[in-house]
Design a protein that fits this description.
- 3 copies of one chain form a homotrimer.
- The first copy, chain A, is an alpha/beta fold.
- The first copy, chain A, is about 35% helix and about 15% strand.
- The first copy, chain A, is built from 12 helices and 9 strands.
- In chain A, the strands form 2 sheets. A 5-stranded parallel sheet of chain A has the order 7-6-5-8-9. Chain A has a 4-stranded parallel sheet with strand order 2-1-3-4, sandwiched between helices.
- The longest helix of chain A is centred in the last third of the chain and has 21 residues.
- Chain A starts with about 30 loop residues before the first helix and ends with a helix.
- At the A-B interface, helix 2 and helix 12 of A face strand 2 and helix 3 of B.
Chain lengths: ~325, ~325, ~325
């Protein structure tokens, strides 16, 4: 199964064909992606059961290196690594943007010299993660925890694991991604993963100002009305809207945004009756989604979080196992 | 012994009568409170000996979730949980006060979905902890590390453990609580615990502006003069004064506060000769208490800290054992 | 070998002659210093091998207490302690400078009462570490992670370990320390260690305004020109320059500083052909050192970092073993 990985670009795989870094889902063949989902499945446990634990990362040191704060994502990665038996250190570093690349590399070299084996990195700028991956020692792996507006691969994987659990037949799905597509790494990673898994009906739903440039999200249908956008879909993926984006979207305040793009129960009725509702969190309740929907029977939002830890365990185990 | 807990309100106990959450000492029957003190006693060790350790929380994940910074209290809870074998994650989160309840619940649901079993929460607003306790899954427990001006139950327990060690006969004690009673969760939890254990002579000593409203601290004697307040008592519990409170107390500066309400050695002579002196820390030396007293032979302040870890171990073990 | 320690001042050693605190390298006899280097050597591992691990600090609690932020140094100490099996807690505390000593002591007493055995402390003021060491319980040790401009003993040790690896014959070495000597604890600890190990040709190289007072760095040659300063040396130790210091050095901007005091490849040619280049990090590339040199074949900067973890393991093990 892992042999499919031999077709990956060499900066992501090792000479032996195993997955080394995970910076994006872009070049990941379907077999590799599905293999990661299968691996993750083994780590999923019901909420009331103890979490899955192994010792497969015993002796491995993982550094969570976040240059933008995100406590929840950091904890998800931290618990994933520790439940595999790894040593984990957390760092929140502010790097001057003028010398970002250099400072990041020097920080990485310092940690690498302390025998850190895996870097989990979140960064707000395009390219810094790739720069790190291209410069670390051969035994070191880099795992993206979010890169600018570009990529959030473990979020993409956990979204796919969640969808697969409810709607295993990807080829026949209709999926709507709704909100600030333009600035969303969550949307980009979901779009790539959905295409890789064979989804053909993908719609991006946003006000014109929050639509991505025309050369992006190829193969997606662009819809400006949320009702039309989610009509008949199986999956509604809501995105978080930043307050500062609402004005550029020509919606002056939260109430206006909700009335134009928020997912209310009434609107959700446009989707299939058994459609599932997703959100990457944290939610702006009453802005992009109503509490009735967020906490309602079609919501799988908390399941996404659980799947997040499972997916991160699978990815960590996979990239370390191939060494 | 634990059967006494069957009289607790159902939102604190489980169907089997065991303690599930600890948000306040208010509804805790005397037998339950004493049982927790007995449990804590088993974890007390002399300073120069290794700390007590068990494996009773192996496999349990504890999240320390503080919305107001308190490094020392966080470390006390962290060490307590780790010395019981738990996995511990620390989070300091800033939640917008406008959407505090919602944001807190979403954060909690996220962590709960990551298989966090116990939440240790400090929050500056009344009611958020209760909201969390009312909404978590049945296998999850909530433990207050301080709620607004209202409640600090493990502080109340550690204070009782400390008093009991020196003055086991609670019915005959005279106790003075001195300082900013009005805004103090430490004072409220101490008052409740003292009453539960049968203390009848409790005095709250403060300038008029820092006295609580008339309907609060029932059964306490209110005294504005510190000399009169501590006259003949067995226990003097000093509170921390915030600088911003001094003016409202009509004392313009630190020196004035000390001369009117500070515990000097001369003043301490008003209490019984073997009276003990307590303080929840951090102390403003020279403001509410002189260094001579804080470090003197009647001070049990450092003993309080040691007892704090023991009490937190006892509470954590108790709420997890009942699952 | 450890018997040499019996000549240490009593506030650093225990009655049995073993090393208890490490606050400075000043009073450390050569045999003790060399013994620490030998111990550290045992913990050095190639980058691609797993790090050294022991269980010699099992049951010991180490607190990293930093009053000035330094993520990298904190991680180095954290990994060192954890790889010896210790429990580690991290605290970043802001202490009001007016009551610094008192607040620090109360924080220490609190942690000590929580059964913390070893304090790793970084502080910006002279004397606070000594105050702590003089006041903790007999079973407790204090380890400096940097004190004001005065002392950074583990940095001094890791620098010596690095030099010894490449140039074992200290008596015959020429060493230049270049940059903001005046404000540098790194320079002071290096100078003391170099003298202890028998180096006679030590040069401090800086603009007049960044030279230390005349009564400091005795036995060093003072040179204002970098070319003259590094001429024929075996070791070039570069220091980090703070931007705010450049003006007092009469160099208005980064480019000017580099042209006057930066280590370029051209300048490095003034040193011996096999001279090694060191830097305590973080580097200002293009200001005090060019990237060509920092990443060049003579640079041992990353080796310094690896040696840092090994040295911290050795010191932690030594101070705990003597109890």
């Amino acid at each position: 199964m892992k042999s499919a990985a031999t077709t990956l670009p060499s900066n992501i795989t090792r000479a032996n064909g195993t997955l080394r870094h995970l910076l994006t889902l872009e070049d990941l063949p379907r077999a590799t992606l599905e293999s990661l989902l299968d691996d993750a499945e083994r780590f999923v446990r019901p909420l009331s059961s103890p979490p899955a634990r192994t010792n497969s990362l015993a002796g491995v040191t993982v550094a969570n290196l976040f240059t933008e704060p995100s406590t929840r994502t950091r904890v998800s990665f931290e618990l994933a690594a520790r439940r595999l038996g790894a040593d984990v250190v957390n760092l929140e570093v502010q790097l001057s943007s003028r010398t970002k690349g250099e400072s990041m590399l020097d920080t990485i070299f310092t940690l690498q010299a302390c025998h850190v084996d895996v870097f989990v990195i979140r960064d707000s700028e395009v390219g810094v993660l790739r720069l790190v991956a291209n410069n670390v020692e051969p035994h070191v792996s880099v795992l993206s925890a979010g890169e600018a507006h570009l990529s959030h691969p473990t979020q993409g994987l956990l979204d796919m694991l969640t969808i697969r659990h409810h709607k295993p037949n990807f080829e026949k799905l209709g999926v709507a991604i709704v909100g600030d597509i333009r600035h969303s790494r969550v949307a980009r990673s979901a779009w790539i993963a959905l295409r890789t898994l064979g989804v053909t009906d993908i719609r991006i739903v946003a006000p014109a100002a929050l639509m991505p440039d025309a050369d992006q999200f190829s193969g997606c249908q662009r819809v400006e009305s949320i009702e039309a956008g989610i009509a008949g879909v199986d999956v509604v993926m809501m995105l978080r809207i930043q307050k500062e984006r609402m004005q550029s979207a020509a919606v002056p305040d939260a109430e206006d945004y909700f009335s134009e793009y928020g997912l209310s129960a009434a609107r959700l009725a446009c989707a299939k009756p058994d459609a599932i509702v997703m959100h990457p969190q944290p939610m702006n309740r009453g802005i992009e989604i109503s509490s009735e929907v967020a906490d309602g029977p079609q919501s799988v939002i908390r399941e996404q979080v659980s799947n997040g830890v499972a997916v991160r365990m699978a990815v960590l185990e996979t990239i370390v196992a191939g060494r």
